[in-house]
Structure formats: C-alpha cells, structure tokens
Amino acid sequence: MSKIRTRFAPSPTGNMHVGNLRTALYAYLVAKHADGDFILRIEDTDRERLEEGAVDIIYRTMKGTGLIHDEGPNQDQGCGPYVQSERMASGLYMEYAKKLIEKGEAYYCFCDKERLENLKDMISEKEVSKYDKHCLSLSEEEVKAKLESGIPYVIRQNVPTEGTTSFDDVLYGTITVDNAELEDMILIKSDGYPTYNFANVVDDNLMRITHVVRGQEYLSSSPKYNLLYQAFGWEVPIYIHCPTITNEEHQKLSKRSGHASYEDLLAQGFLTETIINFVALLGWSPEDNEEFFTLAELVKVFDYQNISKSPAVFDMVKLRWMNGEYIKKMDMEAFKEKAMPYVKEVITKDMDIDKILELVKTRIEVFPDIKEHIDFFEEMPDYDITIYTHKKMKTNAENSLEILKEEYKILKEVANWDFDTLHDTLMEYIKNKEIKNGTGLWPVRTAVSGKQSTPGGAFEIMEIIGKEESLKRIEIGIEKLS
Fold first, then answer.
1. How far separated are the first and last CA of the chain, in Å rounded?
2. How confident is the model at residue 121 (pLDDT cuts 50, 70, 90)?
3. Residue from 155, 171, 174, 172 nearest 228 by CA
4. What is the mean pLDDT of the segment spanning 298-324?
C-alpha cells in the first residue's frame, strides 16, 4: 500500500470546536502511527462564514497541541497552495468542473432564486426542496448564449436518478443509498468559488490523501463524493467517520456550549495535555483500557479500528478529574507559572506563596479553583459558628470554645513560629488533655481559616499567616463562640 496521507482541513470560522480538534487529532494519529504524512489545508471557500483572525487560531491551536503538520501553508511539499482560496486563483476548481461538464457528469444551472425556492419533491414520505435538473436539458447553444449574456450560473453535479451508490466506511461498513434520494449538488457557486463538497474531493485527490477522517455528519454526503471520484476515475480514499460528541444530556455538543472549543477549555484552566488525552478518548479506547496517554504514547497505540460508532459523551466531571491528575504530576515550577495569575487575584500581601502552592497543588482540578481554596490566607472570611460543630471530630460550639481558649494561651508563649514547633506544642496539649487529635485541631483550624475545607491543616496555615495574624483570628473565634 502507498504511504498513508491524512489531512485536517478546517474552515476558518472561529474557535476550534472540540469535534474539529478530535478530527485533527485522529487524522494526525492515523498518519503518524503508520509513519505517514499529516497535511494541514485551510478550506476558506465559504466566504460568508469567514471570521477575521480564525486562521491564526487554527495555527495557534495546532502548534499548542503538538499536532504539527508535515505539509501545509507554511510548508509546501509540492501539493500547494494549501489554502483553497489561493488554489482557486489558478482556476483549478473551474477547470475540473468543466472536465465533468465535458463528461456529462455536471452541467450549468441558470435557475434564479425564486424558481429554486418553489421546488419541492417527496423523498421517503417527506417534502423536501430538491433541484429538478431543469437546466440539464438546455442545448449547447442555449448554454453558450446564456453564458455570453452574463446570466449568473452555478455548476451542478449530474447525479443519476436511478440505481444506487455505495461506499465503504471503516466503522460503519458498506452504506448504500438510492440515487433518487440524492440531489444534484452545486460544485461551483455563482461567485465562482467551489463548494466545500467539490473542493475537498479535488484537493484530497491532488494531495494524494489516502485516509479521510471526519465527523459522522458527513456520512450522508459521502455517496455524492464517491460519484465524483467515479466520474473522474480517481481512487476513493478510506473513510473513517467519527461518532457524534454529545453533552451529558446526550444532545449534540453545541458551539454555544461553554466548553465546546479548545480555547474555552484553556480559559477554564485545563491543561493542553489533559485536553488532548481526553479528546482522544471521545470515541476511541485502547485495548488495555489505559486512560492516561501523552501524544507520543497515543501515536504508538492508536488503532482507528478501535473507534466506536456510538456517540461519545463529553463528561465534564471526568475531564476535571483527569486535569486534576495531570496537575498533581506537574513540575512545581511549571505549576507555579500557571497558578500565579489566579494566586495574585486573591493574595497581595507578602507571604510564602511556594508553601501555599504546595498545599493546593493536590487539591484542585482546574486552575481557577485555586482562588476559593486560598483566599482566606489574605483575608479572613466571615463565617457562622456552626462550622465548629463536626460529628466525626466530636466538636461543638461549647467544647470548641474551651479548647480555643486553652490553645490560645499556649500559642501566645510559642517563640519559634514554625510548623514543627506548632505541631509539637499542640500535639502535647492534645495528649495531656486526653482528647482525639481531630477534637483538638478542628477548632483551631476553623478559627484560623474560617472554612471547613482547607488546603493543609492548622499547622501549615498558622505557619504561613504568622503568629500575630493567627492569634488575632483565634481571638475572633473565641469572641464568636462566647
């Protein structure tokens, strides 16, 4: 078999949707697993949907995720240009459309908008708009006259009205459709630009693409693509249609969803490594059910035969959990770099940030979580005394008050205000009072944090905020409980 060549061909219409990122990832993995080539092509023929800056987003996303192309707009290996609007400048698509017209596989259509809107047809007991091949019956002379007079036109594919068209998909097997259900789709629009459906077939052939990876929503278009391949006499690529991605309610993941794009997820504090790992598992699973993979590891183990046909659920709970596991494994310096913007939002005073980050690193799932975990270090939150009551720790407002008063007197006398001294001092008190560790420590941790859940215990917190602030907060606790 010839060298495997895949492509990722996004349209620059905004942020990169998770579904597009998965297509890019799978196309990359299919190629790289077989030591093949991965091509990036920009499909910008739909001029009405183009967004300024969207091409830069594509380049930034590909670079950020490590999905580096072997060929593309900035790396021509002989199949360029790799931007469709630039390919159009040479008249490439019109040239191929006219070849189909010569073969009788396409024709000029001069119908105006009003006539097209009035067309209806019954397909599978449903009334749908479908072109009726009206202009196919025009003579060569009529076509020539209309072209010379400047009447606007499109070029349509001449789909057979009888028989069936079949195509093979790796996941879905052989799919056969009645040709009567297919419309004569437009190949060249009235503005001279090719449609996506036509340009991608021409470009895939000219770029020698062997495997086409795309979303399940393109299954219905594949018969028309195959008819084009047959009309040109070209070899049909291997199709890999990936399952739909749904949200937790099993609805298709919408672009309006708050986590539908790569940029959304980055902004929400997810790591690129997590996103790639998670997206790889949206429809694919390894044979050994392992869940954590680097991109290099994915290249080694990825087998597109293991892609599922069932819809893949975008499980935010799992994504957050996975991100938390990645954060735990991070190098401390790398973690600090990512964490500091969030730390600075809630801590402006001079304190040991490194110690705070060590405490919080294993407790968060996404970086914005940092703020709610550490905000009490700088400013004591107002709290209700009910948080002193803890069934497991056997504490309540009454015994907490007693313990805080006694611990306050002891802590006032501590000279070396560090973790070890604080630990030894309070543990000795607990031993002498003959109470459980939790009973002796819950009141003081609550008093110095104002929270039921904190990164680190009483000793770590008191060491970081210092003796003066610790005693001040304990005084407030005693006052609240009195």
1. 83
2. low
3. 155
4. 95
Q: How many residues make up the chain in this entry?
A: 482
Please report, for residues 327, 360, 481, the alpha-carbon distance to residue 355 in angstroms, rounded to integers and kept in the order given: 16, 9, 30
Return the ∠ at Cα 19 (arms to 178 and 79), rounded to 5°.
80
For 123-161, the pLDDT digits (tens) are: 444 555 688 999 999 999 999 999 999 999 999 999 999
DSSP-derived 3-state class of residue 128? strand
Which pTM value belongs to this model? 0.91
Residue type, 408: Y
Residue range 170-199, pLDDT digits in tens: 999 999 999 988 999 999 999 999 998 999
Contact 447, 430 (CB under 8 A): no
Q: For residue 365, give Cα distances in angstroms to 249, 257, 321, 342, 384.
A: 22, 20, 6, 14, 27
Query: Phi/psi of residue 215, each to 5°?
Result: -75, 160
Name the residues annotated as catalytic.
255
pLDDT at 122: 43
CB-based burial label for 290 (10 Å; 0-12, 13-18, 19+):
exposed
The CA-atom distances, in angstroms, between 138 and each of 55, 103, 383, 479 are: 41, 16, 83, 95
